[in-house]
Request: fold
Amino acid sequence: MEVRGLVITCPRKVEEWTLSVPLAVSSEVGVRIELCGLCTPEQRVYRGAKPTYPYWGGHELSGTIVSLPDDVPDGLRVGDRVAVLLMRRCGQCRACRLGLDNHCAYLNPKARGGVPQGPGGLANFVGVPAYQVFSVPSFLAPERAALVEPVACVARGINRARAKAGDTVAVIGGGTMGLLHSILLTTKGCDVYLFDDDVATHGPVMSTGAHATGSVHSLSDPKLVEKLTDGWGFDCIFCTRFGVRGIQGAIAAASRGARIVLYQSIPTSDLLSVGANFLHYREIELIGTIAQSADDVRNAIRTIVEHAARFDVLQVNLWPSSNAQEAFEQALDPRVNRVMLDFR
Reply:
């Protein structure tokens, strides 16, 4: 079938293309897309930092079901509002069998022929396997449903860190991902401290119930860390920004038995040097996290529904898909947490 897709054709240029995509009517769920967020991958390609053209991005989707396969999955109905997670989860590979289905897409990539590279969510319609479709309550606004994917990614890192009520937690970076970490961690009952060089990020984070403490450099101030943590150090630290410099600050401020989560990706040329014995004797864990599992998605939906008002702190701007060029330009503005394209 033919869909309207937004394709990045070169730096700072987006075009609407008519694209022919296969729809397996007997086995796929048809979803009319309402909103699609512009995340870091789209922004990098658009500004020319990752020149992979043409690129058909989009993976933060909300929409409504318009058709169901012959074997109708439990809980899905035509007209349901859904979040769509485009990651491949075959259910058969070792990663999927171990509950690491967030790794399946990286181990078993599946190319789509005849269309530009990319996830392909920036479109008015997608046809996908049922496991990529997650129902949300009908009262949940489309812009909240489109946040399910990034919230699920954040939730995964928090779960891997085993963060719990009463933990003293540092979040490095007050951008969109740092803000989402603050929302989810304060919801869990953690005592959260933000570290970011940009003081403009401090106000939104404080409105989540976290403390805006200072710059990343201040993590290396032992007197400040002792004061904030009663002399113990931070139980969990989430690195969402500032690359190696942020990770070094996290290690300096970590308590014994601390869990340090490397949420952000950093250039492969940026190398981290850390004394192995420091980690060994203090039992500090460095934890990677990538994407989200299906369970993380379900947990994210539950959190967004139960704590919807907490997400009002996010500045989310909607643009009609006909104004995609302007929308992409605004997505590069760090003051805006998420720009979403509206295909309704």
Summary: The radius of gyration is 21 Å.
